[in-house]
Amino acid sequence: MQNRFSDNFSGDLSGGDLGISGFYNKTRTVGQGNQALVLMTIIGLGLVGAIGSRLAYLQLNQGIKNRQIAETNRVRTVAKPPVRGNIYDRKGRLLAGNKLSHSVFIWPLAIKRENWLKTRREVAQILDLDEDTIQKKMTGTSVNSTNRVRIVRDLTTAQITRLQEYGAEKEGIDVDIESVRYYPGGQLAAHVLGYTGEMNDRELAKRRPMGYRLGDVTGKMGLESTLEDRLRGEWGGTQVEVDGAGRLQQFLGQKVSKPGQDVTITIDRDLQKVAEDALGTHKASIIAMDPHTGEILAMASRPAFDPNSLSGRISPAVWKELQGKDHPFVNRALSVFPPASTFKIVTTTAALESGKFKPDTILQTYASLRIGGFTFADWNHAGFGPLGFPGALKWSSDTFFYQVGQRIGGPTLIDWTRKYGFGKKTGIELPEESKGLVADDTWKQLNYKMPWSIGDTINMSIGQGFLQTTPLQVAGMFAVPANGGFLVRPHLVKDPAKREGRQSMNLKPSTIETIRKGLRQVVDGGTGGALNVKTIPPASGKSGTAEAPPGENHVWFGGYAPADKPQILVVAFGEHTGGGGGKTAAPMVLKVIEAYFNGGKPLP
Fold this sequence. Notes:
Elements: H1 2-14, H2 20-23, H3 32-61, H4 63-74, E1 75-80, E2 87-88, E3 94-106, H5 116-127, H6 131-138, E4 149-152, H7 157-167, E5 173-182, H8 190-193, E6 196-198, H9 201-207, E7 217-219, H10 222-226, H11 228-232, E8 236-242, E9 248-255, E10 263-264, H12 269-279, E11 284-289, E12 296-302, H13 308-311, H14 316-324, H15 344-354, E13 362-364, E14 368-371, E15 374-377, E16 386-388, H16 389-395, H17 398-408, H18 410-419, H19 441-448, H20 454-461, H21 471-483, E17 486-487, E18 503-504, H22 509-523, E19 540-546, E20 554-561, E21 568-574, H23 581-596
Parallel strand pairs: 2-10
Antiparallel strand pairs: 1-8, 2-3, 3-4, 3-5, 6-7, 8-9, 11-12, 11-21, 13-16, 14-15, 17-18, 19-20, 20-21
Helix pairs in contact: 3-4, 12-23, 15-17, 15-18, 16-22, 17-20
Protein name: Penicillin-binding protein 2
Domain Penicillin-binding protein transpeptidase: 285-593
Keywords: Cell inner membrane, Cell membrane, Cell shape, Cell wall biogenesis/degradation, Hydrolase, Membrane, Peptidoglycan synthesis, Protease, Transmembrane, Transmembrane helix
């Protein structure tokens, strides 16, 4: 049997048929050693070639990139903020600058993790802070971060001394000198300049892609906010070497920070101070402007605040005081109110440009008029007899302009209101500007489910009803007759390259002449007699008094001088001050114009 199984197995092999039994035949040894050696050699050469080619690729093609990555991991920069750019007035006098101040920083990289709780407790005791306050500052910061975290700015002498004594034996706590925003005028031009402060978490998340870091100080309001990119500058810092675990090894050098750009603005510091003093304790605002260029010479708002109190750590007492005032952060020059009778400049323009009235038109005025089922009274409840447009402006007759509004209609009046720039922002470089409201039929249908009525047109013709404008927009309106028919763009930054030119209103010369004649009569014998004095050149203007129940009236006065060749335009507004525009607001305007011409002394 065995031989037969063997014969059969041999026969199978000689016949060329490889079976399973032949695969396991242990008696065949010819050629096995050489084949294994060749196979292993081929595999070895393949592996060496693959590894070599990969090493060559990494060394030759990726070497520079990999060295940069390694260098980045080894060398880090301890960031140092730049010095913020200064803001100067039109004559080169400092309005916003920087002062040196001591701040305390915590450097996570230099503190051992096991020492953190003790360090936090001791720093909190020295600075009189809650530990939670410090921990909140550190939230989101890596233990290996090279960025120092500012804990407190503007340290007192006592705090500096204690921290220096403490720092001699503690790692990771730095008392350093840095620049802090400083406003030498205190409250002067606070709403124009704004203030700076550290970013909160929401602001940081938004600005981090732009290179901002934890603890960065940014503009929070006014020009500080608008001009942030120009004022900010570029970061520098100290380069340090760390090991693979991120531990500090040595200092390598300094990268000098680049200071921000200095900016010159159109404000005149002296005139600004006069304007703010003129407001007294009223909730009010004043704008002084060059009527030909739109340069803002002064912009004052009351109540105000001291931006210096917001540059460092804000104490609870200071914050309570600021919150206790009547909205001191609100710039009333850019907030909306009904323009009252100052708006009669627009109504006169719409009437004369519509072709439905001529410059020499005479209308009878009355104690009141019955229109659309409602009675509309004149402000003196008696009327002024027959008047033309100049006389109607002089005495601010309401019934005269009721008749004008009724004849020209709402759409025409609304159209000219928008041509004067109302209902949209002027484009001044302040983020707090409101656009106001010029209502129409669509707006009223949407908000009141009612159509525009003749009563709405009557109210609008004297600057009341739904109409809402800012004092800055009203100043732009006065500039049109003052400069001969051009709409100017109010601006604060002296940068002619970026300033837009004047826009012609394409008014008839007779329209401009009629309005200017009426505004001159307002001062020379009308409601603006407060400006009819020898301390300023002959002036022109217009008063306004707006009902504002349940509070006292709002008051307005806008004026410019000299009447024939205006150099300065001033608008004053008082919120719930009571009285009339000619009695309350006009004296404010007078003080600013007096300061502009000969310092308030009698003119020769």
